[in-house]
Specification:
Number of domains of chain A: 1
Distance between the termini of chain A: 55 Å
Largest interface: A-B, 30 and 30 residues
Oligomer: homodimer
CATH superfamily of chain A: Tetracycline Repressor, domain 2
Number of strands of chain A: 0
Mean pLDDT of chain A: 91
Radius of gyration of chain A: 19 Å
Strand content of chain A: under 5%
Largest sheet of chain A: none
Shape of chain A: elongated
Structural class of chain A: mainly alpha
CATH architecture of chain A: Orthogonal Bundle
Low-confidence stretches of chain A: none
Order of helices and strands of chain A: HHHHHHHHHH
DNA sequence: ATAGTATTAACCGATTCGGTCAACGGAGGT
DNA sequence: ACCTCCGTTGACCGAATCGGTTAATACTAT
């Protein structure tokens, strides 16, 4: 892509990025026209083609950006340093919501790109996603200190419970256009506290 | 639509329905071509236009079919007659999985149609969805007998927990192509039993 | 004015779209 | 063998859309 893109005022860069995320997240790669992205970003199609040589380049650029932003945000959130399982999940969701404020459609875009099958981009796509693919084994619970939890609790089931509910939250957030992010966060915090009182000694 | 459609062997009807659900669920109404649906169903585009006068008619027919099938299946599942909250949710998920076996992409289609904004179908769509819209207040908990549950449990939070986790399950099921429906059901059953041991006296 | 840069309208050839229509093929009936 | 009916299709149409190019415009600093 054209280096000039980075010299743009940040607000304009953001508009273009988000327009790309938005359009590509709603339809497949092939069914997402460049002029629609340009229109959403408030620029002309020609200018979009000036910054990105072709559609494929823009698409892959967006994917790289998404991967880079998520891993960076997640690392900076401190959720990996958390020892308390519940606080760790809370920090994780906090990080995600922060990103959703700045890039509302990025996660939807990434999710869709993950399953994109179009031969024009498939291979290069897999190459970008590859490292992230193995990491998605987070359905299995991390190591926990059983002495912290009430007796008789099936920790495996507990983790499934809170993991699925958290995913249900994320699902809610992405569904149906705009939502009150702050309310979601505070609701989730309440749920976390509920779980703590339920499971912790 | 053409009455001849109903005279088709059921297997062929099913193929056409599912092809429509599939294609319309992956892209917006405008970006879902008729020839793609025909190809997916294994018939020619001409024949598809023989059964359905135009794209709009097919789309609305599918929506009506989806609404009709879900409400009917849900009613027949007996989940409304259940008094036990947990068993009620289990029956509800059972009904949904049964439908997913026969119409794998119907719920994804219905979900997407719910937010479809294309002016060509928007108004007629709303008219079909309207009754179902008010009903979606199931985020608030039904009436429960507190004496059945352990003391000190915040029933409101408990319901949010299991409701969200259930949605997380449904989310899992729809995501990422084909999955083992039977495994999902048995996993969910385990989770239900876990909740019972956790919350019930 | 000038030079350089950011931005666009207009255009191009190729493809796709919704929809039509004449024709094909097979299964009786005569 | 011929006819007829009917499910089905390939070929076609005009319009729209697509990715991408280019020549010209608007803007800005000198």
């Amino acid at each position: 892509m054209n280096e000039k893109f980075y010299q743009l005022p940040e607000e304009k860069q953001l508009r273009i990025l988000n327009a790309g995320f938005r359009v590509f997240s709603k339809n497949s790669y092939r069914k997402s026209p460049m002029n629609e992205i340009a229109g959403e970003a408030g620029i002309s199609k020609s200018l979009l083609f000036f910054y990105f040589r072709n559609k494929k380049e823009l698409y892959l650029f967006l994917m790289k950006k998404a991967e880079e932003l998520t891993s960076q945000t997640l690392r900076a959130s401190g959720c990996y340093g958390e020892t308390d399982l519940f606080e760790m999940m809370y920090q994780g969701l906090l990080a995600k919501t922060d990103m959703m404020r700045k890039y509302p459609d990025m996660s939807a875009f990434a999710l869709r790109a993950y399953y994109e099958e179009d031969e024009e981009v498939r291979d290069d796509l897999r190459r970008i996603i590859a490292p992230y693919t193995k990491l998605s084994t987070n359905k299995t619970l991390p190591k926990l200190d059983p002495s912290l939890f009430k007796e008789g609790i099936d920790l495996n089931m507990m983790y499934q419970d809170i993991f699925l509910a958290s995913e249900g939250y994320m699902y809610h957030m992405q569904q149906g256009g705009r939502i009150d992010v702050d309310k979601v966060v505070s609701d989730y915090r309440k749920l976390i506290d509920f779980w703590k009182s339920l499971y912790l000694k």
